[in-house]
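Reviewers asked in the last cycle whether our approach scales beyond single polypeptides. To address this, we selected a multi-component target totalling 580 residues and predicted its structure end to end. The input consisted of the following lines:
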Amino acid sequence: MQNRLVGREQEYAMKIIPVFMPPPFPPLTVLTQQEFVQSVQALREQWRAEFVSEIIFKIMQSESAYFFDARSNNHRLWLRNGGLTYIDLGSILEFASAEYEPCSLDGVLQEKASERILNRALEKVIAERGLQEFSLFKNNVGPGERGDIYDEVSYASHHNYSYQTNKRERVYALLTNFIPASLPLTGSGHVYRSHRLGVGNQFCFTLSQRVPHINLLKSSGTLRGDRGIVNTRDEPLMDLSCGLSRLHIISHDATRCEFQTWLVDAIMHLVLRIAEEVEDEKVLPPDLKDPRAELEAINFSLEANFDYQVRLAVPYLALLSGKKDLFEYNYLFLDLAKQLSPLSDNEKKALEAWEEILELLMARAFNKLVGKLDWVTKWKLLRRQMKREGFELSDPQAWLIDMEYHNISNDPNLSWYARLEERGYIQHLVDEEEIVRTMLVPPPTRARCRGDLLELIKTNSRLWYQVTRFNWDGAKFNNYQDMIYFGEKDNPFVPTSSSIDKLCRDLNLKKDTPQ
Amino acid sequence: MSEQKPPEKPPKKEEPKKKKKNGEEEEEEEEKDLEADEELGNILKNARNRDPQELNQEYRQKSGE
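The resulting structure, written as structure tokens, was:
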């Protein structure tokens, strides 16, 4: 297996329904409409921050918690399984997984374990606060604050991959082609309203929630108007001496199906290997003429039953028109990946799965993709409901199904995903026992070292007050000069740390013996 | 301190069932048709579908009013 670290960050939407909502102002107060709207917005903002904090505090009281970084102002809570939860931008709950190896099942386990941890915290908050409902949604769009559910705001799933820094330009170039083309394999599906001049509002089912909010080819930003297909933020979270950087993809959708969660990381890893290992540029797939336009067009391609040809930057040798069938273009990446050498067993399985999905998509065998790809599962569910209940895509019920598919609750009365799981539609790659174990145990990566260091701190409590830095790549102490690396300084892939061993020797620390 | 690395389970691949028919092998998979599922249910019975007065009454009883 080519060494690589992968990790995901997910921002969650919330829905809170109190049993009784107190007015934000004293009774008999006369307010203008503007004052009233501002009061409600302020209350909503206050509640959002308050309830997000409550979730983190409930997790902190559970066995999943490890280290609450009180120095930070965003409630950073490190977890026993190597992950991290915190508050982003003042009021957004964010959950970051521990680093895992691509093509393994650790990524799926981390995602499912995070949902379990959050659900347990939610149950406690609901019980204590007497709420009608408190739901978290693992998706990428939600209604803005103008009272129109289709006037969306977007929040992110960030997919992170380590890669060789000296191949950066090749990586960026290849991904600006691959990310749009692979949308039928990565999207989570969306009921989308578009507005076209002369036509008015139109509703359709698109492949991705996130695509309408990606407006650039490359960008280092992550906020509205500044999101690129490829994010160029350069924050490696590894020592520069290892020659690696962190690819920070913000244009992918959140995934709920276990198979798709695994597949997205696997195919990204294989394409990154192509960028890093294939020297001859002539064998690489031709560039798309306008990747941003292709991304948008492919997002709507289900409407045409995927009868879509991508436009190439230069005429492809076999096709003078400069176009190629969408799935045949995907095959160019798959065929190159098959030639990578060596290939681990997991990578070979990933290639088989990648080819199987492309074959099923080419054959339009969508029934066989239910439970594997989120957009297909959601689309089929919508079609069923629309047919039985007699509503169109423009009906808010369709939008609601889209949202409720992403509710992470395991209650089939709250989440369509949970309902489909109960009925046996979702393909499982991992079992319940493994998920529960992953709530406490990190993957066999440098994430283990964070746990080792935290155990050491617990056993030697004098270290608690000496921590000056604790992050993904390492830690620093007031009373110790050297940086402690998780993994090794020049090799972040190993689950051991000689710097932790040295710290123990130098400070004569006790191991495994509680004080 | 660190637990042993668990053996990695490769992803399960569903093997299609094959049977011979008229001398040729045919693939037969158990396939559920989501669109035709009669027992999936039509709505989620969450709080938004409940009577608000009933919910308020429940809350008052819980809070001892």
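Helices of chain B lie at 52-63. We regard this as preliminary and will revisit it once experimental data from Aim 1 are available.
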